[in-house]
Amino acid sequence: MGHSHLTAIDPTAAIGGICGINDNGGTIANCYNTGTVTATGSTASVGGVCGSSLAPISNCYNIGTVTATSSGADISSICGFNFGPVTNCYYLADTEDENGSKTAAQFANGEVDYLLSQGCSTGEGDNTVTYDGSIWGQTIGTDTYPTLGGAKVYKNATYNGCEGKPGEPVSYEYSNTEKNTYGDHPDADNDGRCDDCGQYIDGIGAKLAGYSLSLTGNIGVNFYMELSNDIVNDESAYMNFILPNGTTSKVYVSGTHEDGSTATTDTTVKNGVTYYVFTCEVAAKEMTSDIKAQMIGNNGEKTGKVYTYTVKEYADYILSHTSAEGSNYGSATVQLVKGMLNYGGAAQKYFGYKTDQLASDGLALTEPVFDDTSIINFIKNEANKAVITNHSDPDKVTFKSAYLSLNSTTDLCVSVQFAEDVTVQEDMFAIWLGSTEISKDQYEITKVNEGNCYKITLHGIKASQLQKQYEFEVHLSDAESAVLTYGATSYAYTVMSSACDNINNIESLREVVKALYAYGSCAQGYEYYKNKN
User: Fold this and answer.
1) Nearest partner of 468 among 489, 494, 451, judged by Cα
2) DSSP of 429-489
3) pLDDT of residue 262
4) Contact of 18 with 60, CB cutoff 8 Å
5) CA distance 276 to 189
6) Which run of H or of E encompasses 281?
7) At 511, which helix (H) or strand (E)?
8) Which residues have CB under 8 Å from 37's CB, separation 6+?
9) What are phi and psi of 381, to 5 degrees?
10) What pLDDT shows up at residue 242?
């Protein structure tokens, strides 16, 4: 680099900001001059970078003033007298031309730096020599001119067309950040895909195709998504749910992940299109609260549109678009949605959660399944009472407690106390529904304190099975066992009994178990007609 102000007075002198004369085959590359260069000799050679050169000059610039007092002098803003090629070199001038002159604005906005950084080649065939220019850089907005070792400059294009079908660039700008600018994806038919390139237009490669409710399983919303191949093949891609309580839940599209989790996404195919189904479960009390869903991929670098929905919104949609007249299935659907919302409203009241916006607001519960007297009579039936059958020494194993947990799933929880001399192993436990043994991945066994006490948690009782009785079995040996027959209606039976009259807020809890019982009855009717159809 050259910064000094130079003057040559010899009549035949060669003078330049970097080199006076280069006649020994050396090359000049990646240099710049900012100083003034002046020659007073009558036949002098003067240049902003080199006075006289027999070899290539590449990737250089000059912003200094170059003057000669004699009209016979060889003068140039880059090299006064040259036999070697001058390639990819630029100098400051009032106007731009094809010989390398660039304006102050072109130096300041990064254009010259970008050109220098691209490097250049001279010669042909085997004689080709490439001069790397990657050393050039410039912090745009801070550096007025290119610097050696500065921040990299990118040439970003602006297109009128969308990213998938942009057409030709209409303009360029230079930046320290690499990012082209595209026009919007047109979507005149509002199908979620670009009319020009066919891409999904939510920013990641996903399109929300629709919603549904989990009607007979756990309470929640199913999001049906069309996904691009990039997202399907991206093992880091997942649907991120923000739940009403502020926590987040990830449902991966595919693969096995660091935390040991595997993708739980279902798929369904309709008219040749594959839809990926992401399910978000909520507690009964949260039916009127927002669920937010967003596709995230490329290890978090790409994010899609945020979708916001509530169970209540879609339930109201079903009620307003489903006829209960002339169809047992339609009637059962309406009845089930009412039962679910009624249960949600009762849970809100019991927990004191958003009671100004109840899921049950506006419901007309005229169907016999919601008759209060009938529900109470069914719940108080002795057949619902918990029963313990002990085929072992009661001192060795005792069922201490059992209850219903009403979180995002409906869980049955049973506590079992063992004698201190009993060695507890997981294969000692089994749960049965009729003659069918419940899969061990549906329940968990946890030690609850320092004593020999364990809790069995059966997760996710389906709505249609709320009136079923389960058998919680503990085997001590081939000849010794203990069995607790218990279900959601057993819990309801206890809550409705006079033994609970003095429990705080008991009347609100009784409304919850009555609504839960009615919800289970509705779910049974819905499944019957659904399977029949």
Assistant:
1) 489
2) EEEEETTEEPPGGGEEEEE-SSSSEEEEEE----GGGTT--EEEEEESSSS-EEEEEE-HH
3) 66
4) yes
5) 22
6) strand 273-281
7) helix 506-532
8) 5, 6, 15, 16, 17, 46, 47, 48, 64, 65, 66, 67
9) -60, 135
10) 92
pLDDT in tens, 169-214: 999 999 999 999 999 888 888 777 788 987 777 767 788 888 788 7
pLDDT of residue 249: 86
Dihedral over alpha carbons 367, 371, 374, 378 (to 10 degrees): 80
Order of strands across the sheet that contains 28-29: 28-29, 57-58, 86-87
Which residues are CB-neighbours of 171 under 8 A, at least 6 positions away? 157, 158
C-alpha 126/C-alpha 146 separation (Å) is 32
**pLDDT given for residue 108 in this prediction:** 97
Please, is 176 exposed, middle or buried when counting C-beta atoms within 10 Å of its C-beta (0-12, 13-18, 19+)? Answer: middle
Asked if residues 154 and 114 have their Cβ atoms less than 8 Å apart, the reply is: yes
Cβ 15 vs Cβ 6: under 8 Å = yes
**Nearest residue to 456 via CA among 444, 442, 438:** 444
What confidence score (pLDDT) does residue 11 get?
65
The first and second tokens of residue 242, run together, are 């923000």
Positive or negative: CA dihedral 387, 390, 393, 398? negative
Q: Which residues of 130-144 are buried (b: 16+ CB within 10 A; e: fewer)?
A: ebebebbbbebeebe
Q: In which residue ranges of the chain is pLDDT below 50?
A: none
Q: Following CA atoms 485, 489, 495, 496 in sequence, which dihedral angle do they give, to the nearest 10 degrees?
A: -120
Q: DSSP readout, 292-342? A: EEEEEEGGGTEEEEEEEE-HHHHHHHHHHH---SS-HHHHHHHHHHHHHHH
Under 8 Å between Cβ of 158 and 144: no
The residue type at 497: S
Q: d(Cα 169, Cα 302) in Å, to the nearest integer?
A: 25
Please say whether the beta carbons of 89 and 60 come within 8 A: yes
Angle at 405 between CA 402 and CA 408, to 5 degrees: 160
Q: What is the pLDDT of residues 118-147, one digit of tens each?
A: 999 887 788 788 889 999 999 999 999 999
Q: How far apart are CA 291 and CA 133, in angstroms?
A: 52
Contacts with 210 (C-beta within 8 Å, 6 or more apart), sequence order: 224
Distance (Å) of CA 252 to CA 265, 393, 503? 7, 48, 43
